[in-house]
Design goal:
Rossmann fold; eight-stranded antiparallel sheet; 24 strands; binds fructose -6-phosphate; 606 residues; globular; alpha/beta; six-stranded antiparallel sheet
């Protein structure tokens, strides 16, 4: 959840470039940051706790000398945010500096061993064992490369690391196991970073490292080896198809708002997803005797909505499962006849990767929907569909959710065709509807901004908000609730409305906001009953429903009128006012929606 960045140039001053790279990686962690450079055979380090801008203001990160350096933005796992726990960490003599993303599981044991050898530790981090281990092996071998190999072989757990040392003057050493790391290959320079966004302004040519790889980078060359036996390996070079403009705020106050507002555009891109891959996924799912949909967080909510879609359009049963529960819940029930569709925006979420690895070992067919080509997930699966949402910087997923829903919809249509479950006239209706998605999204976003700002005032000071729905919009309730609680810090509950009588109704009292997602479909009638129950307990009723629905309007304290649309696309469009609601509630409360406390964009640790 931390992010790392490293660069080696022929002559340029590297610190401002690393600083710029770190700023773009800040979404991955922001409780402390630091940079180390090497110049004239000496290491220079600046680091502290706080956001990068605060640290830069106090320390001026840009005036570190030298053309080679490593950098880190931290999200604490071991040891509280503090200057001493901030990366880079060094060995006893301050001659080896290391930045690290991941968790070293055997660090206590290694620390004890190194302390017995008189190494002195100053931080409470697991990372600090790495420079000391390298120092120890350097003492024994007098060969820096060999020392790196031997030290890395001792590490258990996950890591993406970059190492800088005066023992290797023109070289950076990087390595990965279980945490993302890509090389950025340039003319006269080389980069390595957790995310290509760090070096996109310099190069779009990238090499994603594989688990267990170590690479030695100079300004003019790179070499990749396996950590375990030092065999040289070649890795595929890819071209990144994003540019920095796509990853900038473009005049919006926050990335989250920019990303919400660009959904009509990203929807168009996702609708153009390559049909042959959609059909290929459908082919595997259709042949399989058991189908699971596995993901975390928002991506899991897309799977919840999708399970209704696959059933409704293609009569296919799929089981949505939270990635961190998958092995315990279904580990013994999967086999060669099982297909698992893993959905992950980043393609790096630890629990997703772990479950995919497990499923591969069980000979299941492992498929993916992912936003990052070259990510770990895309390299593990049999086939995947690229959701094409472009880079998402706001920590809260927005446009990537609606893109995932679109890919699921395309997949369910492909499945329905293969299984002969859909008539020509239904197909024509659906096609027409799908093509209308971007323009409907545009209409909703433009008309709802101000309204949701007003609705946010109704809920911003409440202690609890409820989201209730039935059918596939149960996923919309889950996702609306997640957005609100993660960025506006309002405790919220989402339930299938039919289940609300079985417990949650006990929390309803006068003025508690209950948000109903009630489109004009077969759930509407039953939802009216649920609204009456909540009304009888004096809840404040906020309803999203079809324009002109006077019955629902009368029952509601606030009615959010949505355009008419075919029920199967309601999860894609009804979530958008709720994204705006969460955004404005956070902003009204003076919170930064792009950087919610304790959260990182992708959770790459256990
Ligand atoms: C919530 C959010 C997270 C992610 C989750 C999975 O707004 O962004 O819940 O959805 O961490 O991430 P990916 O999709 O990258 O696997």
């Amino acid at each position: 959840m931390c992010r790392i960045c490293a660069a080696v140039f022929q002559a340029d001053n590297v610190a401002p470039l690393l600083h710029a790279g770190l700023k773009r990686l800040e979404y991955g962690g922001y409780d402390s940051a630091g940079i180390a450079t090497l110049h004239g055979g000496k290491l220079y380090i600046k680091k502290d706790k706080g956001k990068i801008d605060e640290i830069h203001q106090a320390l001026n990160l840009d005036d570190l000398p030298g053309s080679i350096g490593i950098a880190h933005t931290r999200w604490a796992t071991h040891g509280a945010p503090s200057k001493v726990n901030a990366h880079p960490h060094t060995d006893c003599k301050g001659e080896i500096a290391v930045v690290h993303n991941g968790i070293i599981e055997n660090f206590l044991e290694l620390k004890q061993e190194l302390e017995n050898l008189r190494h002195v530790f100053i931080s409470r981090t697991d990372t600090e064992v790495i420079p000391h281990l390298i120092e120890e092996y350097y003492k024994r071998t007098n060969n820096f490369r060999e020392a790196c190999f031997q030290a890395l072989r001792r590490l258990q757990g996950t890591f993406a690391i970059a190492i800088l040392s005066r023992y290797a003057k023109d070289m950076i050493v990087v390595a990965r196991k279980g945490s993302p790391l890509l090389l950025g290959i340039g003319n006269g320079f080389n980069f390595a970073a957790s995310d290509a966004i760090a070096f996109l302004d310099k190069t779009k040519t990238s090499i994603p490292l594989e688990d267990g790889d170590i690479a030695f980078l100079s300004s003019s060359s790179y070499e990749i080896y396996r950590i375990e036996d030092a065999t040289p390996v070649k890795r595929k070079t890819i071209t990144i198809d994003w540019d920095l403009q796509q990853a900038s705020k473009e005049g919006y106050e926050h990335f989250m708002l920019k990303e919400i507002m660009e959904q009509p555009y990203t929807m168009r891109l996702s609708l153009g997803a390559q049909k042959q891959y959609v059909d290929l996924l459908a082919e595997f799912m259709e042949k399989s005797s058991k189908n699971f949909l596995v993901a975390a967080g928002t991506s899991y909510h897309s799977c919840v909505a999708a399970s209704y879609l696959y059933s409704r359009l293609a009569n296919l049963a799929t089981i949505p499962v939270i990635a961190s529960e998958f092995i315990e819940q279904y580990g013994n029930a999967i086999d060669v006849n099982t297909t698992i569709l893993f959905v992950s925006q980043s393609g790096e979420t630890y629990d997703v990767i772990n479950a995919a690895d497990f499923a591969r070992k069980k000979a299941c067919t492992v498929l993916g929907i992912c936003n990052v080509i070259g990510s770990t997930l895309t390299r593990m699966v049999r086939a995947y569909v690229h959701q094409q949402s472009g880079p998402e910087i706001g920590v809260a997923a927005t446009k990537t959710y609606t893109s995932q829903l679109i890919i699921h919809l395309l997949l369910s249509i492909s499945l329905a065709k293969k299984r002969g479950k859909i008539s020509q006239s239904e197909m024509d209706d659906i096609k027409e509807t799908i093509n209308e998605l971007p323009s409907l999204a545009e209409q909703i976003l433009i008309s709802k901004q101000k309204e949701m700002l007003e609705v946010s005032k109704l809920i911003m000071n409440k202690n609890h908000v409820f989201f209730l729905a039935r059918g596939m919009n149960y996923a919309t309730a889950l996702e609306g609730r997640l957005k609100l609680l993660e960025i506006a810090y309002i405790p919220s509950t989402a339930y299938p409305a039919g289940e609300s009588k079985h417990g949650p109704i006990s929390l309803i009292e006068e003025g508690v906001p209950v948000i109903f997602i009630a489109p004009n479909d077969e759930t509407r009638k039953l939802l009216i009953g649920n609204i009456m129950e909540m009304k009888a307990r004096k809840a404040t009723i906020i309803t999203l429903g079809e324009e002109g629905d006077s019955e629902l309007m009368q029952l509601s304290d606030h009615y959010i009128a949505m355009p008419r649309m075919l029920p199967i696309i309601t999860p894609i469009l009804y979530i958008m006012p709720l994204q705006l609601l969460a955004y404005y509630t956070a902003v009204n409360k003076g919170l930064d929606p792009d950087k919610p406390r304790n959260l990182a964009k992708s959770v790459t640790v256990l």
